[in-house]
Design a protein that fits this description.
two-stranded antiparallel ribbon; rod-shaped; 220 residues; ten-stranded antiparallel beta sheet; Glucose Permease (Domain IIA); 2 domains; alpha+beta; 3 helices
């Protein structure tokens, strides 16, 4: 079989045609890309803007988030600085003199004081020692009017010998809210106008004087 060889002229012509085809292909591809870009531009799409937005998008400034104060201190059940402690909480570990001042004498019966008693020259405002919910408001012939308030951390405060009470059961009160005024009770007539206050923590009665001014987190 005889192999035919291309003449130099024909071979050079093929090279030229190949180069022309390559150039035309590149030109054609560039035309398609350019048309697509023009089309996107007409439709409102800017490729450069999209890229810039993705990399240079402004981050909104951080805002100060208020922090809730959980270190709440227990306040006294009154605001008048002239109020004095007139009867102590009975503590088995206290000295004899303090224990004697913690005894309630009623109808020939001696009882240990389960709270503390405060008094002044006149009737004074009684306030809630913490935020809480009123559990009950009851009037008793012996104890007078009693208000019980439940607080967080399993605390319950009890206010006895009250008058002019301004809250009722299930009311929500804030720390420092006036819940009534000091009054009188038959069990402690000798004290006259006063407030008997008790504090329970996890079901156990405690000496309130050891809790005032302290954070509720100390007694979890």
């Amino acid at each position: 079989m005889i192999k035919r060889k291309l003449k130099p002229f024909a071979r050079n012509l093929l090279y030229v045609l190949s180069i022309i085809m390559l150039v035309l292909s590149m030109y054609f591809i560039q035309g398609i890309i350019k048309n697509n870009m023009l089309k996107d531009k007409e439709e409102g799409v800017n490729i450069e803007d999209i890229t810039n937005n993705a990399t240079n998008e402004e981050v909104p400034p951080t805002q100060d988030i208020p922090v809730v104060n959980t270190d709440i201190q227990i306040i006294r059940p009154y605001t008048n600085e002239e109020i004095k402690l007139v009867r102590n909480y009975y503590d088995y570990q206290s000295d004899n003199e303090t224990q004697e001042k913690s005894i309630i004498h009623y109808e020939n019966t001696y009882m240990q004081n389960s709270g503390v008693d405060y008094a002044g020259n006149d009737s004074f405002d009684v306030v809630s020692i913490l935020d809480g919910t009123v559990l009950s408001v009851e009037t008793d012939n012996l104890l007078g009017t009693t208000v019980q308030i439940k607080h967080s951390n399993d605390m319950i405060s009890v206010y006895q010998s009250m008058k002019d009470v301004t809250v009722k059961a299930n009311d929500t009160v804030s720390q420092g809210t006036i819940i009534g005024k000091s009054g009188e009770s038959n069990i402690s007539k000798e004290l006259g106008n006063h407030l008997h206050f008790e504090l329970y923590v996890s079901g156990a009665i405690v000496n309130p004087e050891n809790y005032f001014g302290h954070s509720i987190n100390e007694f979890n």
